[in-house]
Amino acid sequence: MLTKLLAIAWKDIYVTFRDRNALLYMFAMPVALSAIIGLAFGTDPDVSIDPIPVAVANQDAGTALPGGEQWNLGQIYESVFIPAEAADPGNTAAQVDELTDAERTDDPAQARDQVNDGDLAALIQIPADFTEQAFQGNSAAVSVYWDSGRSIGPSVVLSIVNSVTYGANTVLLAQQVGPAYLTQLGTELDQDQSAITQATGRVMDAAMSVAQDTPIRLEQVNLQGETRAGDALQYFAPSMAILFMTFTMAAGATTILDEQNGWTLQRIITTPTPRWLFMAGKLLGTYVTGVVQMIILVGLTSLVAALMGRETSVWGDNIAGIALLILAVSFAATSLGLVIAALSQTPSQASTYSTVALFLLGMLGGSFIPIENLPAALDWLPKITLNYWGIQGFFDLSYENAALSAISTNLVVLAVMGVVLFMISTWRFNRRLEI
Q1: Residue 215: is its pLDDT beyond 50?
Q2: Per residue in 174-194, is it b (16+ CB within 10 Å) or e — as a string?
Q3: pLDDT value for 428
Q4: 72: three-class secondary structure by DSSP
């Protein structure tokens, strides 16, 4: 029985690797597509943002506080975007200055024209009576004009202005409400006027101290300690390899229908050969072809990556993980090909079914584009495909340097898919009366 199994398997392997067109389709096309996509997307993982051109028109004249101190809230906004030359590099203003290319302007109208022309990302304009109106409890507005044609720059500027405004409003609230509340509380507690005045002064000083320290903080996370260079080939080499391997598996499985048309299958069935043994032999032959195809593609794409000057490993360094994933994904793909053959009546029908089904599964599984941003209602769809589990497993090994345990779910799912699909194909062939 084992001899029959190996004979059936070897016949399919021999026929496949003697076909030059099949070899071209199995190896040349996926390697070429992977290389083209890798060249198109490149290897640089860094996204640089040019300094954001901003103009600040601070027309605020300021106001005198009850104690005689002059105060200018507009200066807070200006100092955030345009720091002093001697500013500490760790200061908030110095950090904002790294993001923006800000300059003062005394001509807001001209600056607005520059925004309209696309020369500036935003203009921040503070009116002349801004501080006076704010300390009197009246509405005081900072105007921000931005270029709607830019995607990132205006959002950054608006976020900073909003943060400064929120902090300034907090200070103003403390300055306006605190003294009045302390006066009322002191009167109720029969405190003398001097004690109330001293407490009020401390509240005022604390509020002004908060304002002087600039009510905005930026946190920058330095990721240079763990730099990972992303490469498009790390995703598309496995995705193309798996996609073309599934087509090879489907084509191999459809040889069952060719043998049926040539009455080879009928003659085999008339011998003491169980149908499951015939199916297992076809599975083994096609499976070995798929495994060999994947192994060669791993080597070829790695060679192409090296010739292209790529420093990152396309498939990773976890040899055991790569080997197990190749075995698992090839098994699932082979069983899927058998199901397609079992559901078809003729080789041409099987070719049509496999083209439609495998391209659809490839799209759902992420063979053409990454699919991690699907809506929540659809994020389960990729998980029904072997492409998804294979691609994610290989990508985790290469990009994430994942351990074997991290891809255990991928291996189990692919193995279960293979077993279930093989059982379905065997059941379907047993029900075909013409066999």
Answers
A1: no
A2: bbeebbeebbeebeeeeeeee
A3: 82
A4: coil
End-of-domain residue from the set 226, 250, 273: 226
pLDDT over threshold 70, residue 59:
yes
Task: For residues 35 and 153, state if they share a domain.
Answer: no
**What is the model's pLDDT at position 192?**
58
Strand pairing category for 122-126 and 143-146: antiparallel
Domain CATH for 119: 3.40.1710
Q: What is the model's pLDDT at position 408? A: 95
Question: Do 73 and 131 meet the contact criterion of CB atoms below 8 Å apart?
Answer: yes
pLDDT at 415: 95
User: Pick from 158, 149, 86, 156: which is nearest to 119 by CA?
Assistant: 149
- 27-58 b/e (C-beta count within 10 Å ≥ 16 → b): beebbebbbebbeeeebeeeeeeeebbbbbbb
Query: Do residues 94 and 26 both lie within one domain?
Result: no
- CA-nearest of 246, 257, 321, 258 to 287 is 246
Residue 233 CB partners (closer than 8 Å, separation 6+)? 34, 35, 37, 38, 301, 305, 310, 314
Residues 371, 389: Cα–Cα separation, whole Å = 12
Q: Name the nearest CA neighbour of 51 among 79, 80, 27, 81.
A: 81
Return the SS3 of 100: strand
Q: What is the largest CA-CA distance in the chain?
A: 115
Rounded Cα distance between 190 and 341, Å, is 96
- Are residue 219 and residue 72 in the same domain, yes or no? yes
**Does pTM surpass 0.90?**
no
Q: Which helix (H) or strand (E) holds 303?
A: helix 275-307
Residue 222 has pLDDT above 50, yes or no: no
pLDDT at 224: 36
DSSP 105-167: -S-HHHHHHHHHHTS-SEEEEE-TTHHHHHHTTS----EEEE-TT-SSHHHHHHHHHHHHHHH
Helix orientation angle between 319-343 and 232-253, rounded to the nearest 10 degrees: 40
Q: Are 340 and 327 in contact (CB under 8 A)?
A: no
Percent of the chain at pLDDT exceeding 90:
14
Shared domain for 118 and 24, answered yes or no, is no
pLDDT attached to residue 418:
92
Residue at a domain's end among 181, 196, 226? 226
Is residue 283 predicted with pLDDT exceeding 50?
A: yes
Identify the DSSP state of 434: T
Q: Is 360:340 a contact under the CB 8 Å cutoff?
A: no
